Amino acid sequence: MSTRKYQSDVNFIQALSELLRSNDLTEIEVIREFGENDSLNVRVARQMAAAPAQVVQAAAPAPAAAPAQAAAPAPAAAPADTGGDPADHPGAVTSPMVGTAYLQPEPGSPAFIKVGDQIEEGQTLLIIEAMKTMNQIPAPRGGKVARILVEDGSPVEFGAPLVILE
């Protein structure tokens, strides 16, 4: 029974990984409940630098989750962040969603902001396209644009730093 359940878990994780690739997603997290005190928690994520899909065990409260962790590649490369993380900067404006960042309203038009611009609270900093919807990202406060941390057309993750305001 445990071998069959193990193979079922591996097949499920492989299906999630394929779903991630085929829909150009960056992360999927699923909890499968098998019964009381028996569940499988799986988070499949893809790194931004064109790395292959990575399977990571989110939590292991149930015995069924252990085989999934054994099937996962070692996440040794995951904590690649260094001490100078721009997300820790007090003036960082982070992404409220996963999507594609655009620095201008349409191709060929001027960018919303550039380094050195003085901006006001509520002014559009950039657009993030998510699920074919263009979402304007407003400045949470006024200030001077110190750094723009994303490139036009680049994918962004939830919580990723976009702009540094001073």
TrEMBL record:
PROSITE patterns referenced in this protein's UniProt entry, alphabetically: BIOTIN (PS00188), BIOTINYL_LIPOYL (PS50968)
Sequence ranges of Low complexity compositional bias: 64-80
InterPro entries listed in its UniProt record: AcCoA_biotinCC, Biotin_BS, Biotin_Carboxyl_Carrier/Decarb, Biotin_lipoyl, Single_hybrid_motif
GO biological process terms held by the UniProt record: fatty acid biosynthetic process
Gene3D superfamilies: 2.40.50.100
A GO cellular component entry from the record: acetyl-CoA carboxylase complex
General function of this protein: This protein is a component of the acetyl coenzyme A carboxylase complex; first, biotin carboxylase catalyzes the carboxylation of the carrier protein and then the transcarboxylase transfers the carboxyl group to form malonyl-CoA.
Protein name in UniProt: Biotin carboxyl carrier protein of acetyl-CoA carboxylase
Gene name for this UniProt entry: accB
